[in-house]
Amino acid sequence: MPLDPLTSTFAALADPTRRAILARLALGETSVMELAKPFDMSLPAISKHLKVLEHAGLISRGREAQWRPCRIAPASFKQVDGWLGNFRRFWDESFNRLDGLLEEMKAEEAAKAPPHTTRKVRVKKEKQRGRTRG
Amino acid sequence: MPLDPLTSTFAALADPTRRAILARLALGETSVMELAKPFDMSLPAISKHLKVLEHAGLISRGREAQWRPCRIAPASFKQVDGWLGNFRRFWDESFNRLDGLLEEMKAEEAAKAPPHTTRKVRVKKEKQRGRTRG
DNA sequence: GTCGTATTTAACCCATAGGTTATTTAACCG
DNA sequence: CGGTTAAATAACCTATGGGTTAAATACGAC
Hints:
The structure is a homodimer. Chain A has helices spanning 5-13, 16-26, 32-36, 43-55, 74-85, 88-91, 93-96, 99-112; strands at residues 59-61, 70-72. By secondary structure, the first copy, chain A, is mainly alpha-helical. In chain A, strand 1 (59-61) and strand 2 (70-72) form a beta hairpin. In chain A, helix 1 packs antiparallel against helix 4 (43-55). The radius of gyration of chain A is 20 Å and the shape is elongated. The first copy, chain A, binds a DNA duplex through helix 4.
């Protein structure tokens, strides 16, 4: 029974070894051996961690001779950030204050700055704060 | 042995029930009873989930007669977002493209926006940090 | 083929996470 | 006080997660 994506992703992130592995991979793709070095832990343990990360969509693995180079995979990170976005107003002051205006400015500027940008900056208009205590 | 904050926070988020509780709380603070309603689960189970969330710093709880209203607590969310920031360049295109420039513009613009209106909006100079979703 | 290196799989152990029911604490009300 | 509601705790059960060692697999070199 497969867990939903967010659950397996958060579960994968809930381990310091795996987060350290991701931090290492942020510096560039590398082998299992290389990844294992910093840890006082058997290789099979690392292998398991990598499997968890892969299953969570946080890394992907290639094949290069007998090495299996690992690299960061973006999708799950993006999904986590998307989920976090639902709560951003609770802790990001600027999200509630200037961002409406500034994001517009930004979008405007972005629209004419790059010669051919296919990217559109979406402007989210967050009008009212969630009133606590009804 | 207490887990480091990120670990307990991610662990807390790695459960759909708890994420659903947080989603409900994003709408406003409420009681345990109210939080429990949508779930086909005993009250003690919910109580445990709330304890996990509280321990992870994702919610805080008050006291109002016999109710223990729960509400979102920002700090841990912020910390997760901060950690995610280390990887943002992998999935946020704009983070690698325009954001450096645009965030500067933003700060600049914001800095002179409130001419001398004492009570306007405070702007903190941020390090470059892309946050365009989409 | 055989050897060497990199990595995974298998089999196992133990701690803990998530659920249960039954009991207890806390606070209001009459 | 006793009764009712809200919530937490206790005791328990089972599945899973993170680690181990030993064995198997995949690939390149010879």
